[in-house]
Amino acid sequence: MLFGRKKKDRKQPDDTAAQDAAGAASAPAGQQQPDAGDKPKKSSGGLFARLAKTREALTSGVVGLFGGGRKVDDALFDALEDELLMADVGVDATTHLVDALRTGARKEKIEDAAGLLELLRKEMIAILNDTTNRMTEPSPGQPRVTLMVGVNGVGKTTTTAKLAAAAKSNGQQVMLAAADTFRAAAIEQLQEWGQRLDIPVVAQSHGSDAAAVAFDALSAAKARSMDALIIDTAGRQHTHDDLMEQLGKIDRVLKRNDPDTPHETLITLDAGNGQNVLVQIEQFSTQAPITGVVVSKLDGTAKGGVVFAIARKFGLPIRYIGVGEGVDDLRPFDVEAFVDALLPGADELGDDSA
Ligand SMILES: Nc1nc2c(ncn2[C@@H]2O[C@H](COP(=O)(O)OP(=O)(O)OP(=O)(O)O)[C@@H](O)[C@H]2O)c(=O)[nH]1
Ligand SMILES: [Mg+2]
């Protein structure tokens, strides 16, 4: 059962992650990762199991490459390049990784392919950590305003609910704004989540001005001393100029209410879209400055390598990953846990190469 559990009962491993999400939602700038002690272990299932498809895409090839005492040579680097591209790491991040490994292998005199695996791990972590925090902090006593954007069907509304649930379970007063006034039934969808989570939802009627909804919600969140306001918006195609401009209006109108807002603009990207997500970030950035990324549906795709392409191209922090449809299936993005969940462990190399 996803809902209606008492706080005291929320002690399962997945719930710990949800509470981390709440912590990260309210964490000061720059603190994107949960405490090291909370990192999911490989053996504990969790993230490791949820990323099975991407892991399978990457690891099955990588184990063959790095196991068996294989020598470091050009053929190995070429084969690694192929594996990374197939896992949707993208040309730029792949080239960067392979070049870094070539240089590192030379410098550190790594001759055995197994020795390269640790170097690959380090370089992957470095790419994901090389991002700039663009989130701002609310003034004391003011609600943290998060604007959710992204193309149709990527998981914005679900992520809005997951974030709200996590923040609430962390003791915060949360309000939602139904600023998707475009799609029929979108308002009801968010209101349903509000009811299930017992969280207030500010809404107007279908077809009303989305920017006005956002403005009113911010006023209401301030008046009711909320800790967090999360604004769900309509899914829009980046090719659709008028709807994209409407998003720019939401951003401007929020700033008219409070120049510090939104403190965070999260773009939700469906991992299954692979490299296409890069153009989505570019296009949405023209209307609302994106501060962070949610990569959803990582549980259902082998294209999880796209996170490396996102970090390399935009230097945007990946703030959360969606690993399922349930309200607890959101994880603060923990760089090391993510990379560890993707790459084979040294013991696996031994087994496979035996
Ligand atoms: N497997 C999986 N499904 C997800 C995840 N996140 C969202 N979904 C599903 O994706 C579908 C679309 O989710 P929504 O939250 O309605 O997407 P949206 O971006 O708000 O869609 P629009 O409002 O139409 O633009 C739903 O069936 C969700 O349950 C995820 O992390 N994993
Ligand atoms: Mg929606």
Protein described:
- With 354 residues, the protein is α/β, with parallel strands linked by helices.
- It has 14 helices and eight strands.
- The protein has helices at residues 13-25, 47-50, 52-66, 74-86, 91-107, 113-129, 156-169, 186-197, 210-223, 241-257, 277-285, 306-314, 335-342, 346-353, and strands at residues 144-149, 174-179, 201-202, 228-233, 264-270, 292-296, 318-322, 330-332.
- It has an eight-stranded mixed sheet, sandwiched between helices.
- Helix 12 (306-314) links the parallel strand 6 (292-296) and strand 7 (318-322).
- Helix 4 runs antiparallel to helix 5 (91-107) and helix 5 crosses helix 12.
- The radius of gyration is 21 Å and the shape is elongated.
- Residues 1-45 have low confidence and may be disordered.
- The protein binds guanosine-5'-triphosphate and magnesium ion (MG).
